[in-house]
Amino acid sequence: MIPVQAQTVQEHHRVAVIGAGFGGIGASVRLAEQGIDHVIFEKMDDVGGTWWQNKYPGCRCDVPSNLYSFSFALNPDWSDTFSAQPEIHAYLRKVAEDFGVIPRIRFNTTVETVHWDDTAKRWVLETSAGSCTADALITAHGFLSEPAYPDIKGLDSFRGQVMHSAEWDPSYDVTGKRVAVIGTGASAVQIVPVVHETARNLVVFQRTAAWILPHRRRPVKDWEKKLYRRVPAVQRALRGVTYLASELVVLPALLKNQRTDLIKRMAMRHLEAQVPDQELRAKLTPTFTPGCKRLTPTNEYLPAIASTKTELVTDPIVAVGPDGITTADGTLHEADVIILATGFRVTDNSFPGVIRGRDGRTLREVWDSDSMGAYNGTTFAGFPNLFMLAGPNTGIGHTSLVYMIEAQLPYVLGALKAMDEQGIVSVEPRPAVQAAYNEMLQRKLAPSVWLTGGCSSWYLDEKGRNSTIWPDYTFRFAQRLRHFDIDSYYLEFARSQVADVPPVPAQLAAV
Amino acid sequence: MSWPDARRLRWTPTLRVPSDDGTEIAVEVLGDTHPGPTVVLVHGWTFSSRSYHYQRMLAERYRLVLMDHRGHGESDPGPRDNRTIDQIGRDLNAVLRATCEGRDVVLVGHSMGGMTIMSLAAQHPELFGTQVKAVALMNTSAVRTEDDVFGMPRLLVKAFSKQFEGAMALMVSDPEAAEKKKRAGSRGSLFMSRLLNFGKRPDKRLVAFTEAMSSQTKAEVVGDFSITLRGHDKVAALETLGNVPTLVVAGARDRLLPPKHARTIAAGVAGARLLELSDAGHCTMLEHPDVVNEALLELIGSISQPAADAYPAAPTATSTRSRSNGRKTPAQPVAP
After folding, report:
1. Whether A381 and B323 lie within 8 Å, measured CB to CB
2. Which domain, by its residues, includes B139?
3. Is pTM, for the whole model, over 0.80?
């Protein structure tokens, strides 16, 4: 057991929230509604999480903005049907200000370790600004929060600039530079068209081609904004339509592998229209089923690749030298800057490695011995009073993650309410319930495109299990988490002197 | 999983253990060859060891000892004066001495069986943490309180309580008359069993089973024990239970002992965990055998490794492992 802290007066809160992105802000708004005391730790200097960390040129959400926002704070001012990063960040900032979240946030504070004190029945957080305890812990650390670096020999020896898309240096100007981009995923298709405009030339290194779909993006007209502002119901209705469309059309394709040929045909037509060159087209044609990796809609990527300024390299990268990148065919591709559009550490995020549960093991260690798993995507056996927003198997490939986060909040609040009402000091899911839940998930995922589509993706963990995706309609998830199912939990109570209960001269025999 | 059969309640005990007053207690031992801890199942008022119908399958992995209380099931009735919770605590001790010498024990008690365990804890605190390694208390109470209302509207409670008290009084004062008045298997009797024992929508076969089990218990025994239950207070014993991992199970719709009793126990026993089943009544082990067995396996798993040669591991085996070292209470794996 970890020794109890020295007897100084320690800062204590009912709830500690980690992260001030969509999850943290949403949680804070709901907690404040219920008058629950809480504090938020944020490692960066502003709110926004993923949408503050990622500032690369062209960064934009590929989920319609009407849907990718809080249900309690619709935004009539979106300038585009699919908003860009600065606008999403501004939106989050505004929500945080409007709902009074900002004063509760400790900015520039990294949570270094967290452990469960089983004697005091509370979490102990060690942060870069001192320690703090909390009855319950809500982690909203995000799963697109940690850049993944490719393991390429000699990357350090490169003489020019190396930039990960998530760690973009806005002061760096690519104008007139020779640019190399590694990766062709969701962030690469957004960076490439922007960089292509000003760079001297561009080399894109592709391991697997991605399915590129036509983008329906358009600026929102002024009259639409006016209408949304005057009649919010219209925007809400549109949000509903968008939600249902993605739920009923896209999801069956991904989940049951049904009618993926339609997506394929759409993508192929898009490719044929934008890339006239047969040879290049062959290189850009993916070999796996669409949807297996995240679908990437864009109208600008393929023309940028087809441009004479750009070279698409499909030979694998062997090493990086001081002057550029060497591929397997022996060619040295000279560059002034290497852009790593290599995505995030999703299934191997380091944050679970700092949370120690009841038995002293970290969440990462537990996951490594079993596999990544939670109960209802939120709670964990062996980790009392821990609630993870956007936890394992809450991700989706077809709709807004904000919906999933909002679906989790009533569950967390339900747990906190039950604890308050009954004097419960800890709730912890029963291991058998958690195991059964994860079996159910894997059974549903088995026929899905993520497991049968013939690709490797960030949806899968190192054991090949899909530990990121919710394999059903998202409203089913919301339904499941509408109420806190106390039956599935072990409860602990505050120690009390029960001798206070008067032994009563009974009139009833009851057993 | 087959339904418990209301027509087959009689059984032949493996052992008859004489208690300290000479009354013979009927005992059944299952899975005798399993190494590891023995799970001792103690039933509740008017029931018998048959009430653990669904827990018998734990014998696939563990050695089980089931006992009938004096006057219940196949045990001797014993002298009337000795029908007390303190005495059945001594009976339990006698059963442990006769069947579990030199073995680790997990005590499981339902309702009055839970009180029996508290009674043992009060009489022999030294056993808890030494021989007794874990305790599960289902639908039980540490102390009687005044405001038990049978989950009914206040107005009804008064009338119902009067009837109930009258019936108990008759059982004590004129057992034979009470016995004659008893209409085993009648609609009224089934209704009472349904009302007092179950939560939401129980299966008829379960109701028929508990009714048959209760009807089989002599009116005199039921009446005598009702007196001792009335004065039950074993709050002081809860301290002792804190020495071992303790699982408390409650049914949110329990009319006889509502979950506040379980919460009182959970708050009084250090490190106790409560499992509250929202649609269960007074017989959680019959109403939700899967959940209760999982929880029992997790509890037993926390103090031992399941026998290596036991039945092929069910899915719960993987999950019990994650908990195995998770208790702060002494929880050394036992070498098989």
Report:
1. yes
2. 1-326
3. yes
